[in-house]
Design brief:
Chain A is mainly β and 114 residues long. Chain A is 0% helix and 52% strand. In chain B, strand 5 and strand 6 form a beta hairpin. The chains are: A mainly beta (114), B mainly beta (114).
Chain lengths: 114, 114
């Protein structure tokens, strides 16, 4: 069964610190790994995504690290700000393998304390 | 672009009643997805359409759930009869053919079944 396991469920980080959220997957056919950000009362929105041909992707303060052999990937938020407080979902899918929807992790509720 | 539009934003109904949730995808997007979000189960894919045709409904929990997409600009998710355990936030998302894996989510419909 396709699964994506995400941890931690909740995370509190001080302003300026580094937030780290981890995900692990089982299906080796997955080849697209996005992170979605969700604010209260809103739908999830794509934050950053990576394909397994690279080990790291950086966009501003957000970085995805990918370890294909371990089947793990993580989101790092550098210089975390109160505006980053949200729920973060990792996800996985097979980009070239048809039209499957995304398989989401359970989410991490991130709070950045001022 | 107005983004994905969902209605109603909030729905409160009594057990046994029929509930219809509506979605207007982003114009030009060929894929439409229905998700359900709960604290316990996270984001679950219920069904998705490609060019108005249902492709995978394996996530639909029971026969009480049905979804239609009569044209490219409109989809409905119906629950009949509704039960308290159906209480959740239901999201609609759409995706353009060429960027299949980036999904654009609507604001969601919060359903409460009493």
């Amino acid at each position: 069964q396709q699964q994506v396991k995400q941890s931690p469920q909740s995370l509190i980080v001080q302003k300026g610190g580094i937030s780290i959220i981890n995900c692990a997957y089982e299906n080796t056919a997955f080849d697209y790994f996005p992170w979605y950000q969700q604010f209260p009362g809103k739908g999830p929105a794509l934050l950053i995504a990576i394909r397994p041909d690279v080990s790291e992707k950086k966009e501003g303060r957000f970085t995805i690290s990918f370890n294909k052999s371990a089947k793990q990937f993580s989101l790092h938020i550098m210089d975390s700000q109160p505006g980053d407080s949200a729920t973060y979902f990792c996800a996985a899918s097979m980009a070239g393998g048809g039209a499957d929807g995304l398989t989401f992790g359970k989410g991490t509720h991130l709070i950045i304390q001022p | 672009d107005a983004g994905v539009i969902q209605s109603p934003r909030h729905e409160v109904t009594e057990m046994g009643q029929e509930v219809t949730l509506r979605c207007k995808p982003i114009s030009g997007h060929d894929y439409l997805f229905w998700y359900r979000q709960t604290m316990m189960r996270g984001l679950e894919l219920l069904i998705y359409f490609n060019n108005n045709v249902p492709i995978d409904d394996s996530g639909m929990p029971e026969d009480r759930f049905s979804a239609k997409m009569p044209n490219a600009s409109f989809s409905t998710l119906k629950i009949q009869p509704s039960e308290p355990r159906d209480s959740a936030v239901y999201f609609c998302a759409s995706s353009p053919e060429q960027w299949l894996n980036e999904q654009f989510f609507g604001p969601g419909t919060r359903l409460t079944v009493l």
